[in-house]
Amino acid sequence: MPTRRILLAATGLMLAGAAQTDDARADDTRDMPAPGRRAWAAQVPVIRIGLLGGENDTDRLARYGGYQKLLEDTFKVPVKLVLAADYAGVIQGFAAGQLEASYMSPTAYAGAWMESKGNVIPLLTTQEKDGSTSYIAVMYVRADSGITTLAQMKGRSLAWSDPNSASGYLIPRAEFRAAGIDPEPGKFFGRTGFAGGHEQAVVAVLGRQYDAGVTWTSGLGDEAAGFTRGTLRIMSDKKLLNMKDLRIIWKSRPILNGPFVVRADTPAAFRADMLALHRAIPVHYPDIYHAVDMGSGMDWVPVTHADYQVFIDIRKAEAAARRAR
Question: Which of 15, 131, 248, 324 is most open to solvent, judged by the fewest CB atoms within 10 Å of its CB?
Answer without folding.
Answer: 324
